[in-house]
User: Fold UDP-glucose 4-epimerase from Leptidea sinapis.
Amino acid sequence: MTQFKTILVTGGAGYIGSHCVVDLLEAGYDVVAIDNFANAVEDEEGSPALQRAEEITGKPITFYKADLLDKPQINDIFDKHNVDCVIHFAALKAVGESMQQPLLYYQNNLLGMLNLLEIMRSHNCYQMVFSSSCTVYGEPEHLPITETHPTGSITNVYGRTKYFIEEMLKDLSAADDKWNIISLRYFNPVGAHPSGLIGEDPTKEFTNLMPFMAQVALGKKPVLTVFGSDYNTPDGTGIRDYIHVMDLARGHVAALSLLSSSHIKLRVYNLGTGRGVSVKELVSVFERVTKTKIPLKYEARRLGDITAMWADATLAKNELGWTTRHSVEEMCTDFWRWQTMNPNGYPKKIKKSVIVINGKS
Ligand code: UFG
Assistant:
């Protein structure tokens, strides 16, 4: 086993990707990032998130605007760089959209992954960290959720793409001993880099709790709708395992260390704090640390939502030597810093418009 040098990060301009890139650079890796800007902001020079990641770390990033469905383009990137390991974030991830456009999700997420694996194999690169989700567990049969909990009983197409990919990776690993893969099942990533320079700025309509709550706190949205107050939980609202995005990023660096030191074939780890937090609890922590008031409106449960989900992250602790460090307070403080420093997110690409006056431009 040799120490990895160059890491290819797919979806590197996105929310989790850009935070992970910061940690990779700080850990001394060379980063080649690719993104098709499906859900990340693009400007004249490429990705503002990655430019700011360079600013934070003082290190350069090689970036390509590229799409995993464009095989020759991805092949060229692998020809140019000696990639030691791939961290694969690139995927469509909106649950609602996935129900309306299943083919788009299957094509993008499954075909994108197939193309990537084939190109990796043809370039003799067999090391990968895959970005999976706790959504693969479906409605929990027991809590906290261990990695041995059954998977596959999922109610949305997005979640099924993650599950199908995990199954594909099992088959691949069984067929060819060369592969060395870690699948990381994220719980609910929130927060931002403590500098406030990078954070979550989705280009698509978003529905996740923390970004929505921050918009309400900023006055950009009038009220936060709490979906369901009749759940079988202490305060009646849904419970999730919120994890600081920088803890999540560090989990990837820990995964790289394990892959570079041992041939583990295929392993799966939960990345969560092990602590469940209700919607109401998160709102009250956010209000306290940001000194804002979030008006609430209670509505019926959101279709497909589960009652409660939190991780047992013991396996990641024992095998990756990884545990979370950041509190719920820090998740809220850091997200709020990003939001207040960048109320409109990253500077957006200005489309050149032609002004026509009296028929002359
Ligand atoms: N919620 C509200 N109001 C909102 C938004 C969310 O009350 O405006 C509640 C939800 O009902 C849920 C909790 O806040 O109880 C968290 O909701 P999010 O949308 O932030 O996160 P989810 O747990 O629904 O979804 C996340 C990821 C998905 C992934 C899923 C797996 O965003 O990509 O976890 O469980 F599929």
Notes: The chain has a mean pLDDT of 95. Residues 93, 95, 133-135, 158-159, 188, 207-209, 212, 224-227, 238, 240, 279, 302, 305 surround UFG (CB under 6 Å). The first helix runs from residue 15 to 26. The radius of gyration is 20 Å.
